[in-house]
Amino acid sequence: MAVTICTWNINSVRLREGLVLRLLREEAPDILCLQETKSPVDKIPREGFAALGYETMIARGDKGYNGVAIISRLPLEPLDPQNFGGKGDARHAVGRLKSGVEIHNVYLPAGGDVPDPAVNEKFAHKLSFIDDLTRWGEAEKAPAILVGDLNIAPREDDVWSHKQLLKVVSHTPIEVEAFERARAARGWTDVTRGDLDEGLLYSWWSYRAKDWDAADKGRRLDHVWATADIAPRPGAGGSRILRAARGWEKPSDHAPVFATFDI
Predict the structure, then answer these.
(1) Which of 8, 48, 177, 232 has CA atoms 20 to 30 A from the CA of 25?
(2) How far is CA 8 from each of CA 24, 109, 184, 206, rounded to the nearest angstrom?
(3) DSSP conformation class of 260
(4) Is the Cα torsion angle 35, 37, 40, 46 positive or negative in sign?
């Protein structure tokens, strides 16, 4: 069965409920994974999602920050989330499809502004989170898809200027090396780059730019990973980034990222 999954850092699901509904109506993914929902679970406006056929929701939430939600029109069995980073914050949600494939929704910490764990606790937390993700990946065996805002742009062509961003959090060598260790630990396939391997590719553009589209100083912070047993062959995953959504009224600074799987 072909299943299309979308991941999107929505930057407040309550503030941008209308954008989520628009995405569900116009793009109709089977599963939508949201990050930075910024809402307690009981305040997420799920009635509108259910009215469009998305009756399943697995979510974790904090008031005003963090938060992840999996919204699905396919049945999902909720599983216990991981406590990556050890702070108990709402950054991981997971459900299992009837096929046995697990869907992991991860919101990795941004890490603050200074890429030095000795002086920046936020950056130290980010690296700890990645280390936990790595150890967990080494032990897991189930077929799985992991998506989310991982807050790291690993490749040189995942940022607008590799040279200028080498000392900027999200593209520093220490982060990229940790990111690649986590990906290798379970043999995750980077599905997006398997389909869209050539050229600059972004999923995030700062609010600070007066004209984000013209400046185009983006980064690919949002990712779709899959275990080798279910990853589509390169070019067959239907991957795309809905750049247009960054230009919707009162948008998130992230664009939705899609991939399709035969699961």
Answers:
(1) 232
(2) 12, 15, 24, 15
(3) E
(4) negative
Phi and psi, residue 9, nearest 5°: -80, 110
Question: Is the CB of residue 76 less than 8 Å from the CB of residue 93?
Answer: no
At position 263, the amino acid (one-letter code) is I
Which strands sit side by side in the sheet containing 240-241, from one edge to the other?
A: 56-62, 65-72, 31-35, 2-9, 257-262, 240-241
- Are 190 and 240 in contact, with CB atoms under 8 Å apart? no
pLDDT in tens, 203-256: 999 999 999 999 999 999 999 999 999 999 998 889 999 999 999 999 999 999
148: its two tokens: 């989310």
3-state helix, strand, coil in the chain (%, to 5): 30, 25, 45
Q: Could you please report the per-residue DSSP string of 4-41? A: EEEEEE-S-TTTTHHHHHHHHHHH--SEEEEE---S-G
Provide CB contacts within 8 A for 105, sequence distance 6+. 7, 33, 34, 35, 68, 69, 70, 92, 93, 94, 147, 148
